[in-house]
Amino acid sequence: YLLPNIYSFDSQNGYTFRTLPDGALRAWTGHWLAVGPGKPDIALVVPPSRTRAAESRAVTPSVEKGGWFLRLEATARGISDTQNFIGMSTRASDAFDLRDVAKPPTMSPYVSVGVVNDSWGALSGLYAQDIRGGTGTKSWTVVASTDLPNTDVTVRWNGIAGVPKSVRLTIKDETTGQTLDMRSRGSITFKSSDEATTRRFTITAKSAVGDVLRITNVSIRSGGTGRSEGTALVGFTLSGDAVTYEVQVLNAAGAPIATLASRSASAGDVRLVWTGADGGGRKVPAGTYLIQIRAVGSEGDVARVVRPFTFTR
C-alpha cells in the first residue's frame, strides 16, 4: 500500500510533506512517497488537470479541541530539518495510524530529527510525525543525527504555548542524563563527533497536576540582639525533591551579593542564615535587599521566588 504523504525537498528546511487530499505532485520536482511492506507494484496515473498545483509549503497537524502538537527542529551549520511533530489527540492511536508520517531517507550533508518507533512491526522505523492517543502519560523516543563532524547540533521545540497548562513536557538527553522542563527551555544542543553522530532523547508528556516543584512558606527575618544581631534568617519549603537549589542575596538593583547555599535537598523545610557579608566576607550596610530562591526538580522543572526584605544591624 501507499501511505498518503507527499514529500518534497527544501534545501533550507529539509523535507516538507503534505497529506492527501491536500498537496500534489509538481512537475520537475523530486518527491518521496512511502510504500508499505511487500514490494507491491505501484502505478502512477496522472489525469489531465487545469488546476494550479498546490505549493509545497510546510503545514501543521490538525488536532481537535483539547489536543496539541509540538514542532521539533534540528539545525547544524546552516542546515535545518524543520517539519517534525509530536502531539496528542483523542482521535489518534498509540499504534500506527494515518496521523503518523514516515521519515524520508537523508541526503548528505544532513541534519535530521525524528521519532523512533520500534514496536510497529513492518511499519517500525523513523517518523516525522507521531500523534498519540489523547489520555495518560506518553513518551516519544526522539533521535537527532548528522554527518557533519565536530559540529554543534541544536534541537528546538516550537508551539509550547499551544500545549494545555495541564500537560507537563520534559526532554531527557539519554547520553548525559540531563532532563529539562520544555516550558522553561526552548532548545538543547550537543556536539557531534568526528563521524556521523546520533543522539537519543526521550520526551515525556504527563499530567502537571500536583507534580511540579514549588517553593512555599518563604520567610526572611533580620536577626535580633546577641549572637543573631547583624544576620538574616531565611526559611522556605520545597514541595518535592530538588536536584539542586540555590539561594542568593541580591542588592536592590538585582545584582548578586552573596550565595547562601547551592546544593541538593529533599522535600521539606529549609533554614539558612545570612551573616550580613558579601561573597568576599565584607560586611554590607543596612538597607533593602532581595532573596532569590531557585530550585530544579528531578524532571527538569524550575521554581523561582524573589522576595524583598529590610536588613538591619
Structural class: mainly beta
Number of domains: 2
Mean of residue pLDDT values = 87
* Order of SSEs: EEEEEEEEEEEEEEEEEEEEE
Distance between the termini: 80 Å
Number of strands: 21
Assign an overall shape: elongated
DSSP helical segment count: 0
Instruction: Output the radius of gyration.
Output: 26 Å
Q: Assess the beta-strand content as a share of residues.
A: over 45%
Low-pLDDT regions: none
Helicity range of the residues?
Answer: under 10%
Task: Characterize the largest beta sheet: strand count, sense, and whether it forms a barrel.
Answer: 11 strands, mixed
What does this structure look like?
- This protein is an all-beta fold and 313 residues long.
- The protein has two domains: 62-207, no CATH class; 215-311, Immunoglobulin-like (Sandwich), CATH 2.60.40.
- 0% of the residues lie in helices and 50% in strands.
- It contains no helices and 21 strands.
- The strands form four sheets. Strands 4, 5, 6, 7, 8, 9, 10, 11, 12, 13 and 14 form an eleven-stranded mixed sheet that branches. The protein has a four-stranded antiparallel sheet with strand order 18-17-20-21, with no helix packed on it.
- It is elongated.
- The termini are far apart.
Please outline the helices and strands.
Layout: E1 5-10, E2 14-19, E3 31-32, E4 68-76, E5 79-89, E6 101-102, E7 111-117, E8 125-133, E9 138-146, E10 152-158, E11 167-173, E12 179-181, E13 187-191, E14 197-207, E15 215-222, E16 232-238, E17 242-250, E18 256-265, E19 268-274, E20 287-297, E21 302-311
Parallel strand pairs: 5-8
Antiparallel strand pairs: 1-2, 1-3, 4-5, 4-10, 6-8, 7-8, 7-9, 9-14, 10-13, 11-12, 11-14, 15-16, 16-19, 17-18, 17-20, 20-21
